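**User:** Once you have settled down, spend some time on the protein underneath, comparing sequence with structure tokens, and judge whether sequence predicts the tokens.
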Amino acid sequence: MKKHKKNKASGITLIALVVTIIVLLILAGISTQMLSGDNGILTRAGQAKEVTDIAQIEEAIKLEYFSLLGTDILNYGNSATVKQAIENIMTKDEYKDKIVKKNGGSGSITLSANSVIVGATSPNNIATITIEEGSSDGEYYAVSSGKYYKILTDSDDLKIDRTPTEFSEDDTSSGGGATKVIVADTTKATASLSDDKKTITITGVAAGNTSITVEGINKTASIEIVSSIVDVNLDGAIIPGELGVGVGNTILNFNNEQITQGDTSIATVTSEGVIKCGSKTGTTTVKIDGTAYRVKSTAKTVPSTSIGSGAPAVPTGFTAIDTDDAKWSTSTAETSNGLVIMDSKGNQFVWVPVPLSDLNSMFMCTNSNKSGHTCNVVLNGNTLSCTADGHSDELCGKLYATSTGEIFGTVNQTYTQNSGLREPDILNSTSYGDWSTTADRGLKLITRYVTEYIGKNITTEVDTIKSGWTNQLKTEFNKMAVSVAKNGGFYIGRYEASLINGTTRVVAGATSMSAETSSAGTWYGLYQKQKDFISAGSLKSTMIWGSQYDRVMNWIGDDTKIKDTSGTNGNQDTNRRTGVVPADKLKNIFDLYGLRYEWTLEADSENYRVNRGGYCNLNYSPSSRGSLNPTNAYVYYGSRPSLYIE
């Protein structure tokens, strides 16, 4: 019988497999322990990095400290500190993320400013405040592998504690101790803290005041914000239009407690809210009735000792001011560019030169149209007269138009009483002229508005009123003409006249007075308001005469400007505020293109007084002429004063 041999299976037994796995796990554990355990390779490598980092930081701080000590020795100083060395190292790029400052538990945050004024619109609505180092109670830490190691600063033997400390990133700051900023009212302004926590950026949003709280660890600081500041470019004096002066018959009405002055050498605020320039140019901030104004003054007052040669006399009560366009303080005063004077209330006037050689271009005698007669007006002492053969003893204005309209330039050699364009003269009409007795016309208005005749009875004293009014106009014209001749020119209002609290003003930013909406009322009221503006000693004011207005046009001398009817330069301000359109300025005189028609003392026929210049909603040139009967109380009509010396 044959024996069969049994085959043996190859492989490992289950017990052997289990033993193998156990051995492998033991080996893996040993490897992991060697790599990442407390004494593992990876742990030792990380520790080595931290040791190296800390040693490098420690060495860098020591070197910086020794450098500060060396500087002290050279300069005989004693300001070197470990903390200063650390702060210096923190500013270097390679260390700015390796050293942090933990805010202390007390002290304060120091800011570059605790108040700021910003605008509400770009580009003037951004302001920044720097967070500066405040208290000295902060602690410094070296950073490596996400761990914080305290830098010991209590002694000059600088060390870094090798035992790590845990705390929140919010507890740290790269400077100043601030962690966040909170705006009380974000409808007025917003604020943000820079990544390095050293700068606060404030953006104005709308008008009003608010505040910012700057927070650190148990520290706070506050910033007062005045938002929506109004930027004012000051060229002498101005009433900020945002106050609504004169708009809808509104006038300024506040007391001095509502005014906060800034740098008064740059600008001051009068009790009526007029901001006027000081003795130097620059920028300052003032507050009026709760609104802040950032004033950028390009004009300055000029003391009499600094006025250049050839300058006109500055009337008592006024001060010369330098503007960008014309300066008194140059070696020879810039008389051809429009020198400006200003009084204590901010009223401004511009000098219009009239040399003796030009007297005959402005004045003539009433016989100027006689055949063979050529006027020769000369000044003899205090008398201005025509010395030509066949002359008249009465002077009149030489006007540069023969009728109303856009026809400036043709000299009117004819003076005919009660007819055509002329001055001085009354309006002889009994319908709409000076002699009308109808209610709110003529004599009624003279006795209502003109000071000399207020209270006169037109029934019993009509002849007195008529002769007095006639002589008054002639006398005022002659005084003006003599003053022009003696002084070599005259002062004209830099702006159309305004009313503030019922008083005539000549200042920018105010709503010009009109024959309808102001207490002036009609031509007669406007005339009296200009006359009442100044009466101080020998200095007098008057509504501008037609010959004065024509002199201004001839002095400007550029037909492309004085005859421009495009309307592109005109003051189109719907609130009719004076001097707010820079383009509407010729020889430093504003509002010639726009705003309101300017009524003058020039007469037209028996019914009308002549108006000059443009209007804010219509395209008329500065030299244009129109006329209207003086009894009308139209909103379109205003006026402008001039000054003369008796």
Q: What stands out?
A: The chain has a mean pLDDT of 83. Residues 44-227 form a domain with the Immunoglobulin-like fold (CATH 2.60.40.1080).
